[in-house]
Design goal:
By secondary structure, the protein is an alpha/beta fold. Helices cover 39% and strands 22% of the residues. The chain folds into three domains: 7-106, Rossmann fold, CATH 3.40.50; 136-202, Dna Ligase, domain 1 (2-Layer Sandwich); 208-368, D-amino Acid Aminotransferase, Chain A, domain 1 (2-Layer Sandwich). The protein contains 15 helices and 16 strands. Strands 9, 10, 11, 12, 13, 14, 15 and 16 form an eight-stranded mixed β-sheet that branches. A four-stranded parallel β-sheet has the order 3-2-1-4. It has a four-stranded antiparallel β-sheet with strand order 5-8-6-7, with helices on both faces. The N and C termini lie far apart (66 Å).
């Protein structure tokens, strides 16, 4: 049997990478998983990892990681497929595309497009220029008039980072919420003092179940070969977070809109657009575009649209047949640990009743974020991390009380 072309996965400390590793490994694809901190990279414990590789820290040494990849690529007999599991890795691939292309396979995106998409400020400007429906947005740079913005924005609103990973390091959350002028001014001043580029965006009316995603693979000829839509039911943190319970929901209006937006962008490869459906006018508004692998990978697999494998097969020159779901599937992505925390918050804030929590959970088959019967070690690695965090927190509390 001919040896399969391998895949190099960038990042292994999240269930995004774990899902991709499992998809590829189940198809017999050799997977080389890279991370800069093995103790927190629980995806490395998957039995489908062919080799785990310690690499430079993307957050502190992007150029060093780029050179590391170039050196690594030279060791393969055939160019492996390169996949990014986080924005920071996707940006690296884009910035060093010319050099990396000699040793790796990855989609050829129009020059500079990835940077515009990942940077939320640039995405807002791009959406306005291309006529993509999006929430009212103000870019906040060093010259911005904070008082003017606070007077003009529609409330409630959120403060979002240009680059998420930098924002999260400072504020420990993906965005900040403001329900009035004074609250917004305070948040913007905090962001400015931290030298963060941010944007202020109106909150489109609607509960968390008004959040939808459109996923697509577009080949080098610009043809959308695979599409998928899903509806979020719960998030972590609640109201402005990542999926904890999300089910497949076929919506042709969303497919048509997503394809139109991707065509206007000139997008290539795999991408995911997050939309919010306005509770008043029922129109979809663009929230963000993810140009890296999705957290919903296991849901795709259960519904028969294995995007990670679709990417792989297309890049090695042996594409899978086109496939577009037309009927709802009985599957829901579920991250048990984060969902338990979210449910507690929903109930405490009376945003959901117990019946509303239980009903969607029992009505779907579960696509588990971390648990898998054929690959159980990652759940133990993840559990050790969580227990370690809980122990550290308890120690800090005890230390403060004793002091």
């Amino acid at each position: 049997m001919k040896t399969q072309i391998p895949v190099v996965i960038l990042g292994a400390n999240f269930y995004t990478s774990l899902g991709a590793i499992r998809t590829l490994g189940r198809h017999g694809v050799p997977v080389y998983a890279l991370d800069y901190h093995f103790p927190t990279a629980y995806a490395l414990s998957s039995k489908y990892v062919t080799e785990k590789i310690l690499c430079p820290d993307i957050n502190n040494d992007e150029s060093g990681l780029a050179q590391f990849l170039l050196d690594l690529g030279k060791k393969f007999d055939d160019r492996p497929v390169l996949m990014a599991t986080a924005d920071s890795y996707a940006l690296l691939v884009s910035r060093y595309a010319d050099e990396l292309n000699k040793y790796f396979r990855f989609p050829e995106m129009p020059s500079g497009l990835l940077e515009q998409i990942i940077d939320k400020n640039s995405l807002s400007e791009l959406a306005e220029r291309l006529g993509l429906r999006a929430p009212q947005t103000f870019i906040v740079d060093e010259n911005a008039d904070i008082s003017y913005i606070a007077s003009e924005i529609n409330y409630p609103c959120i403060i979002k980072p240009a680059l998420s990973h930098k924002f999260v390091k400072v504020f420990r959350q993906k965005c900040l919420f403001a329900d009035g002028k004074e609250e917004l001014i305070t948040a913007l001043e905090d962001a400015r003092s931290s030298n963060l580029n941010v944007m202020v965006q109106e909150v489109i009316p609607g509960f968390d179940d008004h959040m939808y995603v459109f996923d697509v693979y577009i080949n080098r000829d610009g043809k959308a070969t695979h599409t998928f839509t899903a509806q979020k039911l719960r998030q972590f943190p609640i109201n402005f977070g990542s999926s904890t319970l999300t089910h497949h929901r076929q919506d042709q209006t969303l497919v048509d809109l997503g394809l139109d937006y991707m065509e206007k962008l000139g997008y290539r490869g795999y991408g995911e657009i997050e939309f919010k459906k306005h509770s008043g006018n029922n129109q979809f508004y663009l929230i963000e575009i993810n140009a890296r692998l999705s957290t919903l990978n296991i849901l795709f697999d259960k519904c028969g649209v294995e995007f990670t494998y679709v990417i792989y097969r297309d890049l090695i020159g042996d594409p899978l047949p086109d496939f577009h779901l037309t009927e709802d599937q009985p599957w829901a992505f579920w991250h048990a640990y984060e969902d338990f925390i979210s449910v507690s918050a929903y109930l405490r804030k009376k945003q959901l009743t117990l019946k509303e929590v239980i009903s969607p959970w029992i009505s779907h088959h579960k696509a588990h974020a971390i648990w898998a019967t054929d690959d159980i070690r990652p759940i133990f690695s993840f559990s050790r991390l969580i227990l370690g965090k809980i122990a550290d927190k308890l120690c800090r509390i005890a230390t403060r009380k004793s002091g």
